[in-house]
Amino acid sequence: MDAYRYSAFDFRRIPLMLTGQTAQQIIHEKVIEKAKERLSTTELTISVIAYELGFEYSQSFNKLFKAKTKPKRNRPKQNL
User: Which pLDDT value is given to residue 67?
Assistant: First the structure.
């Protein structure tokens, strides 16, 4: 049974080695993919979708969704 013992470090390190992403990044990516699919194929509200995806508060989901789907700026703001 010793072969099945993994430390918390192993669970952080293995996804990073295999995919180049942390476990949290992988989970966030999958959550966003599922949310986009649900938003485009159903008439459910964002709050309902957030709850279905495991978010207790829709505000937390909204913050994550906006952070992961907002277009990135290519250049920094210029001071006027």
Answer: 93
